[in-house]
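Repro:
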Amino acid sequence: MSLSRHEFESLTERHQLALILECGVEVAERKDESFKFILYNVDGLYVEEIRTAGNDAWLDFCVIEDTDLLIPFTLNVEIPC
């Protein structure tokens, strides 16, 4: 089964979180001075969780459909030779 952006966004935040906890696979994590971003694959859909960097408070979920927006998550990946 593949989840669409519309299907995910039509869920309540509570149901979105439950779906991420049940079916999500953490793919990557990145930080900047103000925010922490956690990337999940949820049934074929990339979902970014946004938290504050200081106290780790949850702010939002954001669906990523444009794979170019995944590039910031790959910048620090080291591939052994």
